[in-house]
Amino acid sequence: MSRTAAALLVAALVTACGGGGEDDSEPPAETCRRVVAVICQKLFECYTAEEREAGMLPATEEECLGQIEEDLECATQTEDNQCDIGETYDPDQAQDCLADYEALSCDVVRDGIDETDTPACSQVCQ
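^ that's the sequence the OP posted. Answer follows.
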């Protein structure tokens, strides 16, 4: 269980890039918060309280949100710090990445998420 939870968090670290680029696009920090909300929702939907406790996860969804948002530094995410040097950030792919996370079944979450489960996430920065 803790391996799966860790996989979710690592995947989020890689894909927590937010929206941006266009004036009407969502800011990166907000998309990061939305990714975190989906991750926490999945952890609480797919695991029992006992499993979450054994995996040393936060006791409540609210604690989960606060902890992961802080770990991912959502508040400081901007378009300028989302991608490696030489890569371009794609806000549409960031939204598709979020949708990939939202579509994950508990079976996938419990088995461990890999990049084939969230294909748009690998396209956010190119």
